[in-house]
Amino acid sequence: MTKIAVIYFPGTNCEQETKRACEAAGLKADVIRWNAKELESYAGYILPGGWSYEDRIRAGVIASKDRILDAIREGAEQGKVVLGICNGCQILVESGIIPLLAEQAQMALAPNINPFISGYYCTWVKIKNSSKKETAFNSVMEDDEVLSIPVAHGEGRFTTKDTALVNELIDHDQLLFRYCDAAGKIIDKFPVNPNGSMINIAGICNKQGNVLAMMPHPERATWQRQVPTYHEEGDGPGPGIKIFESIKEYLK
Amino acid sequence: MSIVELFVGLKIPDTTAITTLHTIEKIGYKVTRLERLIYYRFDIEGDGKKFAEKINKTDILVNVNKNTASNELKKRFAAYLLITDSGDTCQSLLSILQNRLCFREIKSMQKGIVWALFGIDRQQAEEIAKKLLYNEHYQEMKVI
Question: Taking the model in full, what pTM does it have?
Fold first, then answer.
């Protein structure tokens, strides 16, 4: 069976639940350290959430300069699956791997803009599978499917000063997940957009669809019992597992 | 209206600066020493000197057990960079200062980080800033 490497940096804290989410979807996963040398044998890499290097300077930037990112970049170019969740998303954006596999950051995850709370904000939101293209992360989802998923961050506002880049991302259908309301309507207003993210971006993939950086935590919605509507829905697979099941499909 | 600046440093080891120094080395630059200060700029109405005396003792900004506070940057032979978040008006902190701590004379404020990079020239300092110390998509950098 193909294996996924869940890579943790000093300060990462979601590696075990991410591994469990992989396993629940039928993937085999190892938790490995940021200074591991052997990465070749893995079919994909997941950078989980947390506070790598204590968010020193700004979230994700120190980890983005670690040598392991060179191997991740190489893997991304070869078509391996790369998923960055929350702090992992910040690392992929700071490294320039998302959105364009560039050498420098093309975007930023800036501090949240929230009318009530300054800094860290944690809640359940809805995101929509808003890309029409099939990627490594949405193949088991319906078009426009709405997922209930938690967010927990202080710096999660996707932004860029490069307006041409935004148009490019739209043209190439790279805005895989966008914040929406329960009906799937994209409303660029709090609380639907929990952090003021540009055009409600929750997750961006690369052009080829094998790399995804997303701020919400799918691993925290792997089972229905983790979801606030548990008592109405009953137990079973949660909405977040679809991302891991899609990875499994892609790796077949 | 007058402007009061406040530079807050650390008396204790600055772990952020240490990690940053290691990372600067990792990306290929040789900086001999790195220092970091938190920068506040206050636009106030009234006597700047009196305000400075009060604000320097405000414990939510300056913890005397671990911080140093100065109203001017005492420059040495280093490249000094100021990084600020674009459009950040520090609303939350400003509200605490104005309403809870009764600094009603503050009309607006700005917060940033001052980095002092020793042993390199200005051009290299700007390169390091671009690669590591700020993200141009939401922050601004100024050589001071």
Answer: 0.96
Which one of B22, B93, B135 would you mutate to disrupt binding with A, by most A Cβ within 10 Å of its Cβ? Answer: B135
Look at A65 and B23 and tell me if their CB atoms are within 8 Å: yes
- β-strand pairing of A44-47 with A81-85: parallel
A21, A48 contact by CB (below 8 A): no
3-state secondary structure of B11: coil
- H-type alpha helices, A177-235: 230-233
- Using only C-alpha atoms, chain A has a radius of gyration, in whole angstroms, of 16
User: What ipTM does this complex have?
Assistant: 0.92
Alpha helices by DSSP H, listed for A25-79, are 68-77
CATH class of A3-251: alpha beta
Chain segment A156-172, per-residue pLDDT in tens: 999 999 999 999 999 99
Amino acid making up residue A170: I
Count how many pairs of residues, chain A against chain B, have C-beta atoms within 8 Å.
Answer: 54
Phi, psi of A245, deg, nearest 5: -65, -35
Q: Distance between CA atoms of A127 and A149, rounded to whole angstroms?
A: 7
Which single residue is written with the structure tokens 């990112």? A69
Convert the pLDDT of each residue in B20-51 to its tens digit. 999 999 999 999 999 999 999 999 999 999 99
